[in-house]
Amino acid sequence: MKKVASISIGILALITVAIQFYLMIENRVASITETIIRFFSFFTILTNLFVGIYFTLLFINIKKSIIPFINKPGNLSSITVYITIVGLVYQFALRNVWEPKGLQKLVDELLHSIIPLLVILFWYFYENKSAIMYKSVLLWLIYPLVYLFYILTRGCFSGFYPYPFVNVAEIGLTKVMTNSIILLVLFTVISTLFIKIGHKLTK
What we know:
This protein is mainly alpha-helical. Helices cover about 75% and strands about 0% of the residues. The protein has one domain (about 1-200). It is built from 9 helices and no strands. Helix 1 packs antiparallel against helix 5 (about 100-125).
């Protein structure tokens, strides 16, 4: 069952990201090069891509056990934290920002709702929860910190910010810094909760 679940999530995430890429290219408002850069500037896209790659490699490792790093305790939890943040931020901060239609609506729900839920369920059943340490939270924060640095730095030169709550041009640097701190606190809280819940579930 674990093999079926892992490859199903992996393929679903990769296909969904590929369809979103097609839709963004088809509806681009900038050059193809700029559109591609913008596509990979969304935390949602990067995280779902990580989900697709991770679960595909996990499936391969279950069959042949050739990638020991994939099974390291905490890797699944970190991926789960990231995709959970994707879902939470979308539901509470971004869902009302736009109203996608047709195929875009389906892709939107997959990226922000269905895939996060599937990953959380996989984590619940298959993560080695007792082996995860609270100090891992510091390592898990590297990805969002690097991401924030990247989009804010690039935004200064390109004028493009992937999300309204980090748009310096519209809401100002002070507000963006406040929002960034709130997001990092959210990452820390969600990470800690997953570890705490995981430890309780193993008792």
